[in-house]
Amino acid sequence: MLRQTVSVVDHGIGNIRSVTNALEVSGYDSQLVRHPDELKNASIVVLPGVGNFGGVMNAIQKNGLHEAIRDYVFQDRPFLGICVGMQVLFQGSAESPDSNGYGFFRGELNHLSCLDSTKVTPSVGWKELIHTGNADGHALKEAYFVHSYFAAGIDDADLISSYIWEGHKVPGHVGRGRVHGVQFHPEKSRLEGLRFLHGVLRDISK
Amino acid sequence: MGKSWFDLVLEKSRYVKRIIARLDVKSNFLIKGVRFEGLRKIGDPASTALKYYEDGIDEIFLVDNVASLYGRNHLGSLLEKVAKDVFVPLTVAGGIRNLSDAEELFGLGADKIGVNTASFSNPKLITDIANKFGSQAVVGSIQAQRFSGGWECLVEQGRDRTGVAVVDRIKQLIELGVGELLVTSVDNDGVQRGFDVQLADVAAATSTVPVVIGGGCGGIDDALRVIKIEKLSGLSLGSALHFGKIVIEELKAKMKEESQDLVLDEDRA
To answer: SS3 helix, strand, coil % of chain B, rounded to 5?
Structure first.
């Protein structure tokens, strides 16, 4: 069977290599995107991201990719944002008040300490997922999370799965149409994460 | 009042910790010592990492054991190889002196960088990495030796004293921007007679970021003894895994069981 090529946005921040390694094993070829033109003919785009909301937004802007990604996403083309790559799909983040998000999903990122300031952050580790939305054939039971900010005030219809952080429900996977985002790291969630990656990319590119 | 499914998910796993395999590496060999000394070659690091991954490990720490002595980290090619087969978080430590050392390792597949020795003389190292890659990508590594009245930080793989108390260092590292701490007992390292429970307790109580305890675990009972520390986030295992004292799957099952018992005990109390 012909392997599909996934375009991975390379903004130079974080674990891009982990993502391309995971795609390789999940049954996809990958191609790094550093220029807006490279998105024009892309069939699936993955936006990885770790660290800081504003840092990732700035890096995308510097590359001239900012508008190209916005156009791509709002055309409802197959897209998966991972961690901060998911966060930028929301309206904004308390982490970087000067940077706007794409506003594809309603909601803003708040610090976990808003939910309970007595608990340890970042939230790190393997969390059991609770599915409330349609995950088609790509639900996974447990995934690796590492984050301090969470999406608040989101539309229930966009929510696919959540986990419980210190007694509070925190979004794990959001999606509308062909545009999806995950707060967890499928590329770091063992075989189950790779299966998820395979399934979600297959389902959004149907 | 009936408990919701959310409450149950939360409760039964409250005491379940991350299990992290620590692989000390010297010139392409997996090594292990006792109290950071008398290092013995015990295997191949890449195939050992793959085995632990297949056995269900949660994370892997790769530590270049002689790096800070020679002023650089040699784990690049090992990391690159491991990252192709192992899909759990990978932390690399040892001999990372500046942002470009860190950038190189992130580019080869590291998810987090561990720092100790260099960050004493150059605290900006932590801030630099955290600013670019986020706090979650920097693990502050502490080598703790017990002295009267507390613990002191050592550097250079347990060779040199610093005069800095572990509790002070924890606060300092968090202020500089680490997102996680690995606290290893030098006294207990490789001895396989149990973690320094008191150290785990004090470190977890002092820290506002996740704490991983390391040094001394010799079997499942040793691991179960520290999971009661609610704020503790993970356990780092070396000898216990390398010498087959702990089977990962078995430890995880026991940890879940124990966690449910602890929650039930709390309910009764």
So the answer is: 40, 30, 30
| Catalytic-role residue among A11, A147, A185, A198 | A185
Rounded to whole angstroms, the Cα distance separating B145 from B250 reads: 31
Identify the structural domains of chain B with CATH numbers, from first to last.
5-268 (3.20.20.70)
Q: pLDDT value at position A14?
A: 75
Interfacial residues of A (vs B; Cβ cutoff 8 Å)? 13-18, 21-22, 24-25, 50-52, 55, 84, 120-122, 124-126, 128, 130, 144, 146-148, 164, 166-167, 169, 185, 187-191, 193-194
Biggest alpha carbon–alpha carbon distance for chain A: 52
Kindly list the averaged pLDDT for each block of 10 residues, start to end, along chain A of length 206. 90 88 96 95 94 91 94 98 97 94 98 95 94 84 95 97 93 97 97 96 94
CB pairs under 8 A between A and B: 109
Reported ipTM: 0.93
Q: Which residue of A has its CA nearest to B89?
A: A188
Closest CA to B129 of B156, B157, B105, B109: B105
The fold adopted by the segment(s) A5-204 is: Rossmann fold (3.40.50)
* CA gap B63, B105 in Å, rounded: 12
- Across the interface, which of B58, B136, B179 has its CB nearest the CB of A126? B58
Is-catalytic flag, A114?
A: no
Edge-first strand listing for the sheet containing A92-93: A92-93, A108-111, A149-152
Task: Select which of A83, A138, A147, A173 is catalytic.
Answer: A83
Do residues A79 and A179 make contact, with C-beta atoms less than 8 angstroms apart?
yes
pLDDT above 90 as % of chain B? 77
**Residues in chain A within 8 Å Cβ distance of B233:** 120, 124-125
- Do the chains contact at A52 and B108, CB–CB below 8 Å? no
pTM (predicted TM-score)? 0.94
List the domain boundaries for chain A: 5-204
pLDDT digits (tens, 9 = 90+) for B59-87: 999 999 877 566 667 899 999 999 999 99
Largest CA distance in chain B: 62
